[in-house]
């Protein structure tokens, strides 16, 4: 019955060969998306050799051998020289027995096809396929697989560039937050040093914990629970400054607390609500922070009943207009889009005198996203 099912569902031998090739490529891809390193080469090379069906395969960078898989390992020492010769030409080359001298009887490594690996027009390494004799089919196949590997390495470079961009954006956000918040927090703490030393000490510890979290150097993502703990510390410090004028309501669904969110994606929105919504308003101001489960997404809302804002100014802030005094609104929007796609940018509802509501949507599960 199993054999009959396979014949029915996998079709001809050509179909099964296509399936095997796609399966081998899918197994090699995750390692290659980490870039061309000894570790990624070791994890991917067995699957790349299955794609080509050769007795042996080697991966090199521009300096030397990274990994070898298959028979004929006594030829490993020749691999760097083949790479250098290919890198000089910048195109696929074939090598014969004169380039691979061997005294071992029955060794299948007699010829090689070597293709360059190119990332952004830079040759970064080579893919080397070894066989008993040269064929035009092997040359074409090696060149095609090398181009596919190059594509995976380019995606790895894009991932690395995106991470560097997000790190730079977080550094810029930290620099934007610190002058406003640190000055106000220390001023509030100082006001309690003589009148209420115990509270001053508690606030100073909260300030230390907040700054430790905000200026940490590891990870593009955190859990919503950690982000909300940082928000809670921020609000405790702001309430020391505003007193009863600042009222906060939290409504957090427990099931979304483990969801991974971009680092510092909620606190800047709360700071904007305090500074722009309530600081210049008279009387008591309310901030509502909620997070709830919506199927495949977590929805976070930060709302204030303050003075509101001109929608055109908000549009400019989201576009990254540096001339506006807005703590990180465009920064958070850009990082959400970079992490999850353009469908997950900020949604801002506001008008003069009508308060402001900012909605953040994040997928509960996203490839490559973890705290």
TrEMBL record:
The keyword Transit peptide does not apply. One of its GO terms (molecular function) is phosphorelay sensor kinase activity. Keywords: Kinase, Transferase. Residues 168-246 form the Signal transduction histidine kinase internal region domain. Residues 265-364 form the Histidine kinase/HSP90-like ATPase domain. GO terms for cellular component: membrane. InterPro entries: Bact_2-comp_sensor_kinase, HATPase_C_sf, HATPase_dom, Sig_transdc_His_kin_internal. This is Sensor histidine kinase. The lineage of its organism: Bacteria, Bacillati, Actinomycetota, Actinomycetes, Propionibacteriales.
